Amino acid sequence: MNARIRSRLTPYLFLAPALIFMSVFTLYPLLAVGYYSFTEYDILRPPAPVGLANYQRLLNDGVFWLSLRNSFVYLIVTPVIIALAIGLAIALNRTLPGISVFRALYYIPVITGSVAIGIAWQFLFNGSGGPINGLLLWLGVIDKPIVFLTEPSYILPIAMLMTIWMGVGYYMVVFLAALQNIPEDLYDAARIDGCNHWQKHWHVSIPGIRPAIVFVAVISSLSALKVFDEIYVLTNATGGVLNSGSTMVFYLWKQAFRLQNVGYASAIAMVLLVITLSFSILNVRLLERRED
Amino acid sequence: MRRAFALPLAIITLLSLILSACGSSTANQPAQPQVVTQIVRETQIVQVEKTVEVVVTPTPGPNPEAVISDVEAGAEITFWTFYLSPTFDKYIQDTIARFNEAYPGVKVKWEDRQATLQEEYRNSLAAGNAPDVVNIPTDWVLEFAQKDQLLNMSQALPPAVQAQYFEGLFNQVNVGGASYQVPWYQAVDGYLVNKQILEQAGLTMDDLPKTFDEQKEFCAKVKAATGIPCGLRLNTGNLLQSMAYEGNVTIMDANGRFVFDSPEAVSWLQYYVDMIKDGTTARDILLLNSSDDRIGLERFTSGQMPFYVTGPQLIRLVRESNPGLYGYLAMVPRAVGRSGKLPPVSMSIVVSKNTKYPRAAAALAAFMTNPRSMLEFSKLVQIFPSTPASYDDPFFTQPPVAIEDQVRPIARDIISRQSNILPEIPRLNEVNEIVRQAIEAAVFGGVPAEQALKDAVAQANALIGK
Question: Which regions span the lipid bilayer (chain A) (predicted)?
Answer without folding.
Answer: 12-38, 72-92, 104-124, 154-179, 208-225, 231-253, 262-282
